């Protein structure tokens, strides 16, 4: 299988600190692969919350995640303090990519990169919809 590569876009829109929880640890004693995806969701939810939105209500429109990619770089352990940076890329009429860079807060060693394709969705109509202008303004 070919290796996945995730480039870091120029436009950072958010960052947050988070600690590795004991429930994030796998049988090998380090941060579990599935916990990386959970951390990206936490980062995204905090970003939305920081603007008074939820993932199902940005001016009445929500989002769905249409695909995910993760590249693992190094280990993290309980209770390491991490920094998560959120970037955006490939913004189109109805979708965008969110790129997450997870590093150790002390020392800055990179743990993982992840990318989620986000499609804005009208839950009342049950179909994709344009990205709300209020959301686009945050990206400028």
TrEMBL record:
<keyword id="KW-0378">Hydrolase</keyword>
<dbReference type="Pfam" id="PF13279">
    <property type="entry name" value="4HBT_2"/>
</dbReference>
<dbReference type="InterPro" id="IPR029069">
    <property type="entry name" value="HotDog_dom_sf"/>
</dbReference>
<protein>
    <submittedName>
        <fullName>Thioesterase</fullName>
    </submittedName>
</protein>
<comment type="similarity">
    <text>Belongs to the 4-hydroxybenzoyl-CoA thioesterase family.</text>
</comment>
<dbReference type="GO" id="GO:0047617">
    <property type="term" value="F:fatty acyl-CoA hydrolase activity"/>
</dbReference>
<dbReference type="InterPro" id="IPR050563">
    <property type="entry name" value="4-hydroxybenzoyl-CoA_TE"/>
</dbReference>
């Amino acid at each position: 299988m070919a290796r996945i590569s995730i480039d870091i876009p120029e436009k950072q829109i958010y960052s947050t600190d988070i600690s590795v929880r004991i429930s994030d640890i796998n049988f090998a004693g380090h941060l579990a692969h599935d916990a990386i995806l959970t951390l990206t969701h936490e980062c995204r939810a905090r970003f939305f919350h920081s603007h008074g939105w939820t993932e199902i209500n940005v001016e009445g429109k929500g989002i769905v995640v249409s695909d995910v990619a993760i590249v693992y770089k190094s280990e993290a352990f309980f209770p390491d303090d991490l920094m998560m940076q959120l970037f955006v890329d490939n913004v189109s009429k109805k979708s965008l990519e969110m790129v997450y860079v997870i590093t150790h807060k002390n020392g800055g060693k990179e743990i993982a990169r992840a990318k989620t394709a986000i499609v804005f969705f009208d839950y009342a109509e049950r179909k994709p919809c344009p990205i709300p202008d209020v959301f686009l303004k945050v990206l400028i």
